[in-house]
Specification:
alpha/beta, 321 residues, five-stranded parallel β-sheet, 15 helices, globular
Length: 321
């Protein structure tokens, strides 16, 4: 139990201290991943190979004391490979469930867009209801069940686009870009000293900040963060404007509004404030909405990007004072 906002901040500081032992740079990605975890939601992480997408997820799972499992998505992966299946036990003369890797707390769905839609959809029920149905029986997952899914950019060969229903279940799309020059030099220096991030994680340099089942304490502590009604209305205006924008074919739904509220609140907490500002909302608008809207074909032909369309929307809506 976290008694006050100061104790909450102390725990967050410990989390950041531990993650810096492994992750080099990528400040925005680390912050957004923490926001997702504080909100009890899921994240879609996109970036070219070799930018520590998998390492980021593994590191957070270890710091937060979560049971961890990984699924490597491939074109031949079947839904039963994710959820598990019932196998007949000859000795007991009955069927027994062989649980799949989805029965964990922190699930890394690595390169999720390497598998076709049928396989990707095996995660839908688990991400929304935190339960799995196998052979007409429903099994509960951990209340802290979290999915971090990584994907290569959609232009890469051998990838499948994620269904819209599944993308909407990811709270944020976290983009991991190229590291800064100083960070890349730091990485090489650590490798020369046999202290690469992967080696450091394997050696157990990270100390868990929380124990199993204690992640909910951090999430409950977001109740210390207040938000004014004008900012709630501002969030609604932003999401609703995506549905009427001239550049957008399909706008964001109510789940996006909920995600923006959660993200704005968590961003304020991670920034050390117990109140939400318009900057928190604007900072999180693009990560929340980027994967949820579809541009009109004519806008895409003109070279308009999703980020540019969202920038125009944010510019048109008056900012509360």
């Amino acid at each position: 139990m976290i008694a006050d906002f100061e104790q909450f901040q102390a725990v967050l500081e410990s989390v950041n201290t531990e993650i810096r032992k492994v992750i080099i740079g990528q400040e925005a990605a680390v912050r957004q991943a923490l926001i997702v975890l504080l909100s009890g939601q899921h994240a879609l992480i996109e970036g070219v190979p070799g930018l520590a997408k998998t390492l980021l997820a593994r590191t957070f799972a270890q710091i937060l004391g979560c049971e961890f499992a990984r699924i490597q998505f491939t074109p031949d992966l079947m839904p039963a490979d994710i959820t598990g299946t019932s196998v007949f036990n000859l000795q007991r003369n009955e069927f027994a469930l062989v649980k799949g890797p989805i029965f964990t707390t922190f699930l890394l769905a690595d390169e999720i867009n390497r598998a076709p839609a049928k396989t990707q959809s095996a995660l839908l029920q688990a991400m929304q209801e935190r339960e799995v149905t196998i052979d007409r029986d429903t099994w509960k997952l951990s209340p802290d069940f979290t999915v971090f899914a990584t994907q290569n950019p959609i232009e890469s060969e051998g990838t499948y686009p994620l269904p819209e229903a599944q993308k909407d279940r990811f709270m944020l799309k976290i983009f991991i870009g190229w590291p800064e020059k100083e960070d890349e030099l730091n990485l090489l220096s650590r490798m020369l000293a046999n202290d690469s991030p992967e080696a450091a994680l394997a050696r157990g340099v990270i100390q868990p900040v929380l124990g199993p089942g204690q992640l909910q304490y951090l999430r409950d502590a977001l109740g210390f963060v207040t938000i004014r009604p004008e900012l709630v209305a501002y969030m609604v205006d932003i999401v609703r404007r995506t549905r009427t924008s001239d550049d957008v074919l399909v706008g964001a739904g109510p789940r996006a509004t909920q995600s923006l509220l959660r993200a704005g609140r968590a961003h304020a907490a991670v920034s050390g404030r117990d109140f939400v500002t318009p900057d928190d909302v604007r900072e999180m608008a693009v990560p929340v909405l980027d994967h949820r809207i579809i541009l009109r074909p004519e806008s895409e032909i003109e070279g308009v990007t999703v980020a540019e369309a969202l920038a125009k929307i944010l510019k048109d809506i008056p900012v509360p004072r």
